[in-house]
Amino acid sequence: MPQWSDYTNGQRIKILRGREITQPQLAERCGLSVVTIQKAEQDKVLSLTTLLRIAGALGVDTSVILGQQAPRRAMSMDDRAMLRELSRAVHDSWVGLLPRTVAAPSADELRAAVDACWARYWEGHYAEAGAIVAPLLEAATAHRHEQPHDRQATAWGLISDAHRLAAYVANLMGARDLAYAAIGHAQEAAESAADNMRHALVTSGRAWVYLRDSRLKAALDLAEKSAVDIEPRFSRATPGELVAYGSHVNFAAVVAARLEKKERAKEFLSQSHAAGARLGEEIAAHGTRWGPVSATTQAVGVNVGLGRIGKALALADDIKDVSALSPAAQNRYSMDLALAQAHARQWDASLDTLEETLTKAPEWSRHQVLPGVIVEKVGRASTARLRRVSKLLGVSNPVTGGFDTATEKSAL
Q: What is the rounded CA–CA span in Å between residue 230 and residue 240?
């Protein structure tokens, strides 16, 4: 399979344009003639002005067209455009550069917008969530500017929430530099808000960025700190405190499992189960959701990470109903189950689980690494159904899946 650098500039433009947009449509977006686009794709002429305009219209850096870096996997043109707009909003709003048309909504209106954005995120509509976050960042900043200097804590808290959302979307879609910038802004805003809970949530968010950047030890240190900072007294903890603690101590278990620190992972899992049991049902708070079903389904993935495949499958056998989970959490559980089945050499069962999720949630799936890991693992068994599942993933090589050879340790 050719590497991205093996193509010519013209071929890369044509690939990035894809089936979503015709040459005339690209020309219109660039403010160029169709002939200019044709010459660029035929490698006849590509001036600096044409390069910059085409890159902007396609939503990529010029380095991608020039073959100096590959485009992000499964990234559509709409995804790229969303990330560019999100990047602009993250950087510009932080230094106070706001469009003149931005209005300053009330704090209640901003809270409702944050909740709506988290809902889209946990439904697996990441591009839509990112599209909402960009104007949310600007509106939250405008709101803060209207508050007296000594009454800005609430506004800073909302800005922290918006930047944490931006970091989550960017991190999940592979825009690591943007994720680092946004989570850094979220941390500074949480400190200005003097809100210990928000600060701990941001710390856990930074740990997730570290995990996806393969900085595992630093991720574990931050994940543990976040869990300790918000550990409540169970006898008098509010539901919101239990949700935050349960979900974030579970994340600490995930990271510990990636580092093969089995005893610490088991200890964290025990605490996450205790929080879920105390809640008694799935409850949403602080941009996440937790409860007894979440604790059990998440434990499946942690046990796979620990190499306890029998334990993971036994837990899965006891899970009868996951409808209380968010769509994204349901999909993630299915991927953990498919991976456990692949480890157990239950090839057909693994492909059944994977194919069902890919068919049900194609938008969610294309932003995940784990489906490719599963395809690669099952591919070694040479099953007859593998090619169909690979096609759902949008890859041509059923053995490697066309993915970077990412290990399961970084496939969160």
A: 11
Distance CA 301, CA 404 (A): 21
Residue 287 has pLDDT above 50, yes or no: yes
Nearest to 90 by CA among 150, 43, 134: 134
- The amino acid present at 298, given as its one-letter code, is Q
Q: What single string gives the DSSP state of each residue in 228-240?
A: HHT---TTT--HH
CA distance 121 to 110: 16
The percentage of the chain sitting over the pLDDT mark of 90, rounded to a whole number, equals 71
Whether residue 408 has pLDDT greater than 80: no
Place of tokens 């010029």: 62
Distance, in Å, from the CA atom of 282 to the CA atom of 290, rounded to the nearest integer, reads: 5
Look up residue 203 and give its two tokens.
């710390």
Q: Is the model's pLDDT at 401 over the cut of 50?
A: no
Q: How far apart are CA 362 and CA 267, in angstroms?
A: 35
Residue 243 CA to residue 255 CA, distance in Å, equals 19
DSSP letters, 162-175, are: HHHHHHHHHHHTT-
CATH of domain 4-65: 1.10.260.40
**What pTM, to 2 d.p., does this model score?**
0.82
pLDDT on residue 402: 39
Whether 381 shows a pLDDT value over 80: the answer reads: no
Could you tell me how many residues make up the chain?
412
Mean pLDDT of 143-167: 96
Give phi and psi for 288, each to the nearest 5: -150, 180
pLDDT at res. 399: 41
Tokens 């003639």 sit on residue: 33
pLDDT exceeds cutoff 90 at 76: no
Q: Which of 2-16, 76-90, 232-246 has the highest mean pLDDT?
A: 232-246
Give the span between the Cα atoms of 372 and 395, in whole angstroms: 9
CB atoms within 10 A of CB 188: 15
Residue 289 DSSP one-character state: E
- Amino acid identity of residue 224, one-letter, is E
- Gap between the Cα atoms of 386 and 396, Å rounded: 11
Tell me how crowded residue 367 is: count the other CB atoms within 10 A of its CB. 18
Domain range summary for the chain, segments of one domain joined by +:
4-65, 73-194, 213-325, 326-412
